[in-house]
Amino acid sequence: PHHPSLCPSPSLTAMSAPASYETNTFPASEMDPSVPASADFYRHANGAWLDANPIPPEFPRWGTFTLVNERAVAELHNIVKECAETPKNADEAMIGDFWRSGMDEARLNDLGVQPVMGLIGEVREAVGDKAKLARVVAKLHMLDIGVLFNFGVSEDVNNTTQMIFKVSQGGLGLPDRDFYLQDARAEIRSKYLDFAATLFSALGLDADAAAAAAAQVLALETRLAEASWPKAELRDAKKKDNPRTVAALREEMRGFDLDAYLAALGAAERMGGECAGPLNNGTPSYFTEDLEFHVLRAAARFLDGKMEGAAFEFYDKTIRGQKEMKPRYKRVIEVLNSELGRGEVLGKIYCARCFPEDAKAKMVEYVEELVEAVRGRIKTLEWMQDSTKDSALKKLDCFGLKIGYPDRWVDVTGLEITADSFWSNVANSRIRENMEMVSKINGPPDKLRWEMPPQLVNAYFHPYKNEIVFPAGILQPPFFSKNYDPALIFGGIGAVIGHEQSHGYDDQGRQYDHRGQLHDWWTSDDAKAYDARAQKIIEQFDKYTVHGMNVQGKLTQGENIADLGGLKLAYTAMQNYFEKNGRQPDIDGYTAEQRFFLSWARVWRMNVSEELAKTFITTDPHSPPNYRTNGPLSNMPEFYEAFGVAEGDAMWRPESDRVEIW
To answer: I want to staple 145 with a disulfide (CB 3.0 to 4.6 A). Which of 70, 298, 367, 459 is the partner?
Structure first.
């Protein structure tokens, strides 16, 4: 399932963070006083820093999230080296072996594509045999190789006490369906063909045969893209809820051997329940090139330098605008951070060393402040009727909260990890994780499971569990510090808390009740009032442009609603805090309200490559950083008052156009 998060998850890398992030100050050297706050607050707060911090060549973007991640990986690097040299237990030995397998470039280059040739052979043997094809697709899915469609196991949205098997659209090697269908993406499609041909050449195909195979891949994936829904449509939870019995799905998938597929997954014996979602199918022989390509594409970063280089040239350089490949050790840390026990094996050691326990207690305090702010705002909403308010408050009372790290860590006992094969280690980790997932079908959900490793600098709301989660990675400057005054904290981590709470009531979250179930708890009039307000934020962001492309207001509405709601809630919580504890004095010439908004702007400072910015416009439900800063602020009279914004200023919006939901 999609779990609305604070930002698109950045890769973890290593470098030191600015000292100013650890202090209570806003250095004038990072701001741009030549741009008035009322003209462009993002630039006013961050302009000098943005100018002085161009994107380093090994990154496609550079900003607050990147810098905070840098600190995490500096420590992770120390951890993995220690585990490789002097492991103290089985988990550390596993980390050390995984690390060595990824760092041994000479061996990887000697092996070439040999580690995946067994899989390639199985794909070729499936030609003309639907049962074999289905079993191969199942095996690839267990390796997280996304061919033809996607599968997963998660809560039944109509009964969240039970996990069910789900299928959904997938099978695309480009970032989104629009990359196949839009004329503006023709150059990228041409480079995609070159990339695919390069991979096929590694199997011994000559140039003509490799080009022909690449063309087959693009042709099939274009058909899949044409049948796929746009990302904005995928926000409609009710439209995506299409329950099927196994018998009904079998009938709809007459061109695909569903029984062989489920048996190979190990799911057949658990499938007395229901499946959900659309599925694409065709003839086995037509799929051969596509399956081979996806094996190579998925494994490329774990193979030799030629394969990894090809993947970098296309995905990182062409799609994301990254000029140089990161150093080897950083790339291997990224793999460890996601593959080994969903990153928790490494995260457990990281949290033991780096997460201050008093931060958890402080976070609980601020969450409680925000909960009361939400409660107060729901009770005073003029546009919502009492019956809907009661349901909204019930959902708030049932919000779950996870902070720092899991109460139960992933157990990887018995997982086979060696120092000899990078790809085998990745494959074994993925198979173990997916086998565990399949074993949950028709069982109860795991309430202790986390969807992010704790060292990640992010946060999320889980609609089916009705819970908000704040990993240890985000509980550090500039989001949070024990040295910060309340205004900085409320404008940083406070707005993050409010953001995740608001996801429970955004265009998607509002469709789920206090149990996390898909249930319409709104009166007809209230639903219409909500939709009218949401439409205003769609129209606002539709007008913003990046490199000549319009932001997709419908795609980004959930995050935009959460940004605005998070700010409003955090601001209210700050004022409530001052009423109870006394108002903080001005600091560095700024009032508490001004520091609150400056803290928000500092969170989103980021330079982004043109290539990545254009990709995100199509694929990312988050708006570009300057609009995440200025967009919600332009709807807040509190911001107008703090910085003297008046009619005629660029940050001013007519009162009739301003959005207020929560």
So the answer is: 298
User: pLDDT tens, 16-71?
Assistant: 334 455 566 677 889 999 999 999 999 999 999 999 999 999 999 999 999 999 99
Nearest in space to 459 (alpha carbons), one of 618, 603, 594, 633: 603
Amino acid symbol at 119: L
Q: For residues 210, 212, 213 and 214, what is the CA-based torsion angle, rounded to 10 degrees?
A: 90
Provide the sign of the torsion angle of the four alpha carbons 354, 355, 356, 357, taken in this order: negative
Backbone angles phi, psi at 283, to 5 degrees: -95, 145
Instruction: Say which amino acid occupies 201.
Output: S
Alpha-carbon gap, residue 437 to 441, rounded angstroms: 7
Structure tokens at 439: 């074993």
In 401-494, which ranges are continuous DSSP H helix? 422-438, 486-489
Asked if 547 and 468 count as a contact pair (C-beta separation under 8 A), the reply is: no
Tokens matching residue 644:
């003297």
Other Cβ atoms closer than 10 A to 569: 27
- Contact in structure between 161 and 186 (CB atoms under 8 Å): no
Residue 571 structure tokens: 């601001």
pLDDT tens string 281-324: 333 455 789 999 999 999 999 999 999 999 999 999 999 999 99
Cα separation, 518 vs 188, in Å, equals 38
Contact 497, 468 (CB under 8 A): yes
| Residue 6 CB partners (closer than 8 Å, separation 6+) | 458, 459, 460, 474, 496, 499, 500
318: Cβ–Cβ under 8 A, 6 or more apart, which residues?
A: 188, 191, 611
C-alpha 80/C-alpha 329 separation (Å) is 10
| Residue 412 C-alpha from the chain's centroid | 24
Structure tokens at 553: 């207001």
Distance in Å from the first CA to the final CA of the chain: 25
DSSP secondary structure letter of residue 644 = T
10 Å CB burial of residue 226 (0-12, 13-18, 19+) is exposed
Q: What is the DSSP letter of 587?
A: B
Distance of alpha carbon 379 from alpha carbon 381, whole angstroms: 6
What is the Cα 555 distance to its own chain's centre?
14
Retrieve residue 583's tokens.
């108002």
Amino acid at 579: E
Contact 363, 403 (CB under 8 A): yes
SS3 string, 171-199, reads: CCCCCCCHHHHCHHHHHHHHHHHHHHHHH
Is residue 142 within 8 Å of 434, Cβ to Cβ?
Answer: yes
* Contact yes or no for 437/142 (Cβ under 8 A): no
Cα–Cα nearest to 310, from 236, 388, 387, 200: 200
pTM of the model: 0.91
Q: Which residues pair with 403 in a beta bridge?
A: 470
